[in-house]
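Hey L., structure's done. Input below.
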Amino acid sequence: MSRIGRMPVTIPNGVQVEIIGSHVRVAGPKGKLEFTFSHLIEIERENDEILVKRSSNAPVQRALHGTTRAVLANMVHGVSTGFERILEIAGVGYRAEMSGNNLILHMGYSHPVEVEPPDGISFDVDMKARQIFVRGFSKEVVGQIAANIRKVRPPEPYHGKGIHYLGEKIRRKAGKSGKAK
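Output:
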């Protein structure tokens, strides 16, 4: 049995969970999420916990068991606490600033790049640390928006300049070597 799938998902105070067959709605202080899971997996609520069960050891059900539990746990965590991705800017003249709710990136192009946050996403910029904070209640959307921002100027391998995730290891390459005489 899946080690992740058999662990119950604890429902914190202030979070409402509604299970209708394989459709789950989760609402909390940060927002509302809903998802329709596979009908092969059973989702039950017992007191303040959500249990994910499977009826057989078929490979499809084994694969869905842990995934379903992980997605449910992320939904509950997102609406109660939220998710955050931190991006760092490296490079001379590269900077980010806020204009209302929008993020303005000056990344060496002839024009600034403006990123507008979708619903449920907020940006924050720390000018001193040269960091961009992407916050929201959906782990999937936070990760996708952070990836889109990183894509504006990905880190290059020779000098390491660009936008990268906090703690990301950038593979560095050696530059041209001079001709020995």
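The first strand starts at residue 9 and ends at 10. The radius of gyration is 21 Å.

-- N.
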